[in-house]
Design a protein that fits this description.
single chain, 457 residues, 4-stranded parallel β-sheet, 14 helices, 21% strand
Length: 457
């Protein structure tokens, strides 16, 4: 028997394939968890086992959005340190973050994932690096939340081994030993990583940043990742203070430091990369090191404007990231499409980035950065059925003739249907797999609990 099919018709389609193929009115046929066909006009006649037909009139279909950088636990500390730069923000919030536990992280992951999924994210990523002693299975809590929601997930198992007494920013009780961090990361890979084509869960090796990680952990982490065949992730070149820190401590800038520890390559992606000179960009392009561009967080913390147009022109893989919701309180990747376009035009002029480039950053670019461009990120036959049907015939978009411009430059578009692995996760702007109201109540309770424990309430 043929696999169950879903047919979406009468919609505009932006495939984000290599040729940026678009259809003013077209169809997508999904068979099981794969895209079977995409093209202009109506779907082929005589398809067997069609279990659902969707009339996409007034809608745009795109690949699902791919988030490349996040910190779920920060959902519980939104709205704090409102007027701080990165360093002061970290100093103010680390004492609170150091008191998280498994129950809190599960709730925060639910809130973070729900907000993204409801806004068109089909592949989520999280960089979790705070593991206080006795706090439970924090990575497992995130993985459980993603599985329950049905979202494709890359869990970057972070680590810190440079506490306050060693010149780092986090409290000593919130960091791990070098040996402990490496052992826990290897265990996470062995327990959870699935390398299959339609995998719902990847694990990455992700020491936090030069401020909180020893050189030994960076080097050994890179060796571990390559021995296990998984990707590597960390923060890089986020602020001018980081540049100064690296020169003072290591005698070189961040990019040279990363290269000296084995942290440039086509299996690596860095978050932010705001302060990159021509030489840095050339090194990333030469090695195909990826970048997670986080425009809202960079603006919130006044970190600066990343040179995304220059990176793209040089061949650097670039995706979009929400970043933690303590520095991007909306928690949506959809809004990053617009903010990436606007902020990069502030930095580089009116032609610095266009609407289709912004959409590519949030879809195919993210898939490249996560090492999954052959599976997701564009609408092509044989790829996984991770798709979003955006409603563009309401008042917010009704007078914008170009559907891609409407999506990227207009108001946040409602999601009529979001499919992940061919299964509906969002219907008519609401999640189908979880109770949104229950998540809101749970996250509120856990945020209040954390504030009380940390002495903020």
């Amino acid at each position: 028997m043929a696999a169950p099919r879903i047919v979406i018709e009468n919609c505009a389609i932006a495939t984000v394939d290599a040729n940026d193929t678009e259809y003013a009115s077209g169809h997508v046929v999904i068979a099981g968890n794969r895209i079977e066909s995409v093209g202009a006009g109506a779907a082929p006649q005589g398809l067997e086992n069609v279990v659902r037909r969707v009339d996409g009139t007034g809608h745009l279909v795109t690949p699902g959005l791919v988030n490349t950088h996040h910190h779920f636990y920060q959902w519980l500390t939104r709205g704090l340190a409102q007027d701080s730069n990165l360093f002061n923000w970290l100093v103010e919030l680390y004492p609170t973050w150091a008191r998280i536990d498994e129950e809190m992280v599960y709730a925060a992951a639910q809130g973070s994932l729900a907000m993204m999924a409801r806004g068109g994210v089909t592949t989520a990523m999280d960089h979790h690096y705070v593991f206080p002693k006795g706090s439970g299975d924090l990575l497992g809590a995130e993985i459980r939340a993603a599985k329950e929601m049905g979202v494709r997930f890359t869990a970057a198992r972070g680590s810190m081994d440079r506490g306050k007494s060693d010149g780092g920013l986090p409290p000593d009780f919130a960091v791990e030993t070098l040996e402990g961090a490496l052992a826990a990361t290897e265990e996470a890979i062995d327990t959870h990583h699935d390398s299959s084509f339609d995998s719902m869960l990847h694990i990455a090796v992700a020491p936090c940043s030069p401020f909180s990680v020893s050189t030994d952990l960076m080097r050994e982490g890179a060796l571990l990742a390559r021995r296990k065949g998984v990707r590597l992730h960390t923060h890089g070149s986020e602020t001018v203070e980081e540049e100064k820190f690296c020169h003072e401590l290591f005698g070189m800038g961040p990019t040279d430091y990363f290269e000296s520890t084995g942290w440039l390559g086509d299996d690596v992606w860095m978050a932010h990369c705001v302060h990159m000179n021509d030489s840095d960009i050339a090194a990333f392009a030469r090695t195909k090191t990826g970048v997670a561009h986080c425009p809202s967080s960079n603006a919130r913390l006044a970190a600066g404007i990343a040179r995304v147009p220059d990176m793209l022109a040089s061949g650097v893989p670039v995706g979009l990231g929400v970043d933690g919701t303590a520095s991007n309180e909306s928690g949506e990747l959809h809004t990053e499409l617009r903010n990436a376009l606007l902020i990069n035009r502030l930095g580089g002029g009116e032609r610095a980035l266009n609407a289709r480039q912004a959409l590519r950053l949030g879809t195919y670019g993210g898939a490249q950065v996560l090492g999954r461009a052959d599976q997701i990120g564009s609408i092509e036959a044989g790829k996984l059925a991770d798709l979003v049907l955006w409603k563009l015939d309401g008042i917010g978009h009704s007078s914008i003739a170009d559907p891609v411009a409407a999506l990227v430059m207009g108001a946040a578009a409602p999601v009529t249907l979001s499919l992940i692995n061919g299964k509906p996760v969002v219907e008519n702007n609401h999640l189908t797999t979880v109770d949104e109201d229950a998540i809101a109540r749970l996250t509120r309770v856990q945020a209040q609990r954390l504030a009380k424990i940390a002495g903020l309430a």
